[in-house]
Design goal:
The protein is α/β, with parallel strands linked by helices and 360 residues long. It has helices at 22-26, 30-43, 49-53, 58-75, 93-98, 111-121, 176-189, 203-212, 263-272, 283-290, 294-303, 317-323, and strands spanning 81-85, 103-108, 138-142, 160-166, 190-201, 217-219, 223-227, 245-250, 254-259, 275-282, 307-308, 313-314, 326-333, 357-358. The strands form 3 sheets. It has an 8-stranded mixed β-sheet with strand order 10-13-5-4-1-2-3-14, sandwiched between helices. Strands 6-7-8-9 form a 4-stranded antiparallel β-sheet. A two-stranded antiparallel sheet has the order 11-12. Mean pLDDT is 87; it is low at 9-28.
């Protein structure tokens, strides 16, 4: 039975007892957990602007949007073809539009979320009130992009210049098979020199907080994380990095199972698929660094992500602490980068319901 180094301990202290491969206990439950996650996001209703502004984590939501906007501005160029895995309700469509991309494919496991994304793209939601049409054509697909081979369905759409996976890659780490499928889909569909950009929970921070807690749970007024008794020794082996599950609750946002993604294991697996690390930064470090740049500081002010101390409206300590459990990552597809060409996939047009592709 394999033993290995604790992925969160530089000295590599071993677990006091051997642990079975996490994959063996989770393979039969993969579809169950994937459906639970899909149902959770499908059942979340679109909020009005007034409801969004009243959210107890409004500044955290705005900060998340600022971080995603900065990533898009840093790595997307005019005319790019973009693959948005786990696109949700299409919340980043306007961000991509501001980057003047040429083509967009959004994929999500939740059919309700895909329908919301279609309505948003078609200008039929509160979010689209008073704005012009999008500047790029789009395709929407309902599929588990961590389970399904996407290449056959997108052979005529790629290669893509940018692949975005926002707050979702950790859902692929329930098993090694799903983690590999996720990265293989990214690598296969990205052109050489293309970028994978994303955000996900910071496993190092989560494990440190877990070890500082008296029990198997911790959090504050806006978020809560709870591990089960299988993690009672609070050690996680790098030799078996998949399937470390915890229950995550984020007020007015998330309430479903998630999985740790030890970053060194993630980096090593990505390298197997020709993806080279460009950036890894915790949200706190990312905010401190990029908010110093004038163009991004102005965007921060415009979004109101940190609030306005002059009127007593600032991000709360609990929200800022919740931001600390996330990180930003960027990878680059290896190989000779071809000349960038503006997408020639046509112009904006409405997406009919029957045009949404469903992959099993």
């Amino acid at each position: 039975m394999k033993r290995g180094r604790d992925f969160n301990t530089p000295s590599g202290n071993q677990s006091s007892k051997p642990r079975l491969s996490r994959d063996s206990s989770l393979d039969g439950h993969t579809n169950q957990w994937a459906k639970k996650v899909a149902d959770h996001y499908s059942n979340r209703t679109n909020q009005t602007r007034e409801e969004r502004e009243a959210s107890p984590i409004i500044h955290l939501k705005k900060l998340n949007n600022w971080i995603k906007s900065v990533l898009i501005q840093l790595y997307a160029q005019r005319g790019d073809a973009v693959l948005d895995l786990a696109c949700g309700k299409g919340g980043d469509l306007i961000k991509w539009d501001k980057a003047s991309i040429g083509y967009y494919v959004g994929i999500d496991i939740a059919d309700g979320s895909i329908e919301d994304a279609r309505n948003r793209y078609n200008g039929e939601t509160d979010h689209a009130r008073g704005r012009r049409d999008f500047s790029f054509p789009a395709k929407l697909i309902c599929a588990d992009c961590f389970e399904v081979d996407l290449e056959p369905a997108l052979k005529d759409d790629g290669p893509f210049n940018v692949c975005s996976v926002q707050f979702a890659m950790h859902y692929s780490w329930s098993t090694e098979e799903r983690a590999r499928r996720a990265l293989k889909n990214v690598s296969t569909l990205l052109q050489p020199g293309g970028y994978l950009i994303g955000t996900m929970p910071d496993a190092d921070v989560i494990v440190r907080k877990l070890r500082s807690a008296d029990e198997l749970e911790f959090g504050n007024n806006v978020y809560h994380i709870k591990f089960d008794k299988s993690c009672s020794d609070k050690r996680f082996l790098s030799a078996s990095p998949y399937g470390y599950q915890y229950e995550f609750h984020l007020e007015d946002a998330v309430d479903c199972p998630e999985w740790l993604v030890p970053f060194q294991s993630f980096k090593a697996l990505a390298e197997e698929y020709g993806l080279e690390l460009v950036m890894k930064k915790n949200f706190h470090k990312f905010v401190h660094e990029y908010s110093q740049r004038q163009e991004f500081a102005e965007l921060m002010r415009k979004l109101g992500a940190l609030g306005d101390p002059a009127v007593g409206d600032t991000i709360t300590d609990d929200e800022w602490d919740a931001a600390y459990i996330y990180l930003v990552f960027v990878f680059k597809k290896s190989g000779n980068k071809p000349p960038r060409q503006r997408s020639s996939r046509g112009t904006y047009r409405l997406i009919n319901q029957e045009e949404v592709v469903v992959l099993q």
